[in-house]
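Thought: the user asked what Potassium-transporting ATPase KdpC subunit looks like in 3D. I have the sequence; next I should run the structure tool and report back without guessing.
Action: structure_tool
Action Input:
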Amino acid sequence: MSVTRMSYVRPALVMTVLLTLATGVVYPLLTTGVSELVFRPQAMGSLIKDSGNKVIGSELIGQNFTRNDYFWGRPSVTSDSPYNPMASAGSNLAASNPALDQAVKDRVAALRKANPQSPATVPVDLVTSSGSGLDPQISVEAAQWQAPRIAAARGLPLAQVNKLIDDNTSSPLIGYLGPDVVNVLGLNLALDERKAN
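Observation:
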């Protein structure tokens, strides 16, 4: 190999090694360290623990609530089981696909059967899955739509259930970037705490 070629190869190899160390080792360690110092709960997965310090879920991943005395989240179509974080995916069904139409009709029928005292129009986020299949939140309208079922199942006045919804509603950081939402796990935990008290 000529001296001229060597003069190009050596700097290229040195830069490859340096950039690999900088972007593959130093930068990830630095960002991980800073995030654990500054944003520890979020860096650890935004975990929710019970009074015994046992992890019961995450603020970032939905759970499959099916009992009538709990609020239900958005449908999840992740493989193996609903809200499986290892298989995050949407249904990939096009809006023109008859299978999607049928799935929505089936969900509407099931929701109307479980919520006979709610209005006829079912909020769209209760019958359509998201792109990730892991959404932990529903719209305020979806929570209020389910409130009569929860009130009846728990023997609570509807006004108290609606107050719990209001207390657990969060707004986007910048108001126009999205609607107000309710974290389903947080709301269901608030229901259980109210029962315990």
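Thought: the tool returned a structure. Summarizing for the user.
Final Answer: Structure for Potassium-transporting ATPase KdpC subunit predicted. The two ends are 81 Å apart (CA to CA). The first strand starts at residue 47 and ends at 49.
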